[in-house]
Specification:
This protein is an alpha+beta fold. It has twelve helices and 15 strands. The strands form five sheets. Strands 1-2-3-5-4 form a five-stranded antiparallel sheet. The longest helix is centred in the N-terminal third of the chain and has 29 residues. It is globular and about 85 Å long. 30% of the residues are buried.
């Protein structure tokens, strides 16, 4: 059969020939050899490359805004928080605060501490023997892998992924608080492994399961440190800071003190709004709506976001359980107010400081029953011959029963509550509640003992 005998086939052939010629002419006219129509650009960029460049531009603008905010904060007069003053004095007197590229070249990494989507953390030893954490770009991380899958440009992808670490360094330079990890130095040198490295004080990752098994005093310490941190972030020198990725993994402990260590997802801007519905805080189980201010800003949104996340990730698990009975009403008030966002961070900090004052001074022991079941003889300077393997929970020592007490009376009452306890010893070592300026209010370590005959 020929085309002349079938008009439909002839028409189909002519249409196909016309479309082919049109495609070739457009390709020849609009793009150089090797490019395809819409993918060609006068500047030679493909849509993928253009998207990568746009992301790099946005990250650079974000860094520039952070630098401007940091410069403005340094040039303006700010109120000095007493906790912050302690941190700044340590910063100025510590020679480890000026670590740079030269010191990094001779620094020895001794352990791998962890890695995330964009960063790797190594433990390193300084020449004087102390340890620091080295945070650098994770070349095998998820962020780098996804970027390479999309753009196939190793240099630009490394630059894009490194912005998180660069942002963190700028934030650590502008935010200094006892509950924020200290930046001891930095290096931005392509000859150093990673290209950019932040030198931080080294701590232990926050282990919530381990913390849940610790004495209430240590759990309260973590929550108190968190509230002090959020109070500082609510009106920091850089503005109101929101921790957008608020998770326990963003924190470490240094000598028992909670410290924020990941700030790459922090934001120093509060959202703009037109009406109240624009100021919506959404959580898995609760939603809250704040008012849109006359200046068209959701003022307080960052603060409230941080506070509710502190409630659902920390307070719920750490505050109420095993708390001293007479402190529970105040703790329940804290739980209710933060769970419903009825109070701001200022009022929450006041409540926490009141709990600390009562606990340190022993006021929470005033209504305890008097000692009636057993008298104790005081033997100074003598070591107990009891069995130190007597265990209780929670205890500071898993191999024994070591508790925190305010006085001999409290220790006696605790020993009476344990049927197997026959005596106890008080250590001269004090817990973290001792005042930095005087000895008013402190807690001692008490070891409960069971006699060898039991």
């Amino acid at each position: 059969m020929t085309f002349s005998k079938n008009p439909f086939c002839a028409f189909f052939f002519v249409a196909l020939l016309f479309l082919t010629l049109t495609f070739v002419l457009k390709k020849w006219h609009f793009g150089p050899p090797g490019t395809f129509g819409d993918a060609a650009r006068p500047d030679g960029l493909t849509p993928e490359r253009d998207r990568l460049h746009q992301q790099l531009k946005e990250r650079q603008q974000e860094l520039e805004l952070l630098h401007i905010a940091s410069d403005n904060a340094q040039s303006s007069e700010t109120f000095i928080d007493p906790h912050l003053a302690i941190n700044e004095s340590l910063h100025s007197e510590n020679p480890e605060m000026d670590i740079g590229c030269e010191e990094l070249h001779v620094m020895k990494a001794v352990d791998f501490l962890g890695s995330g989507y964009s960063k790797t953390v190594l433990k390193a030893v300084l020449p004087q023997g102390s340890f620091v954490a080295l945070k650098s770009v994770n070349h095998q991380g998820t962020d780098m892998r996804l970027c390479m899958d999309d753009f196939k440009d190793h240099k630009s992808c490394h630059e894009l992924v490194s912005f998180k670490l660069r942002k963190e360094i700028v934030l650590l330079q502008g935010l200094q608080h006892p509950n924020i990890v200290q930046l001891k130095g930095q290096c931005q040198d392509s000859t150093v492994v990673g290209g950019i490295t932040a030198v931080l004080e080294q701590g232990m990752p926050l282990q919530m399961i381990q913390l849940l098994q610790s004495p209430w005093e240590e759990r309260f310490r973590v929550c108190l440190g968190l509230v002090r941190l959020l109070h500082y972030l609510s009106s920091s020198p850089l503005g109101s800071v929101a921790l957008l990725d608020f998770q326990p993994r963003q924190f470490i402990t240094v000598s028992g003190e909670l410290k924020l260590t990941d700030l790459d997802d922090a934001s120093i801007e509060e959202p703009g709004c037109v009406e109240d519905s624009d100021c919506l805080l959404q959580f898995p189980l609760r939603n809250f709506t704040l008012r849109c201010s006359p200046s068209r800003i959701c003022e307080g949104l960052n603060e409230m976001r941080n506070l509710y996340n502190a409630y659902r990730y920390f307070f719920t698990y750490l505050l109420p359980h095993q708390a001293p009975p007479l402190l529970k009403p105040l703790l329940e008030k804290i739980m209710n107010s933060t769970g419903d966002l009825k109070q701001c961070i200022n009022e929450t900090l006041v409540d926490f400081e009141e709990v600390l004052r009562m606990y340190k001074s022993g006021l929470h022991l005033e209504n305890l029953p008097p000692l009636i079941s057993r008298d104790y003889a005081v033997l100074k300077g003598m070591r107990s011959v009891g069995n130190m393997e007597y265990r209780c929970w929670p205890s500071y020592n898993q191999q024994g029963c070591v508790l925190s007490v305010h006085s001999t009376r409290e220790a006696s009452l605790i020993c009476n509550s344990h049927p197997q306890c026959t005596s106890f010893s008080l250590s001269k070592e004090r817990t973290w509640t001792v005042s930095l300026h005087n000895n008013f209010g402190f807690r001692l370590f008490c070891t409960l003992i069971i006699s060898n005959g039991h």
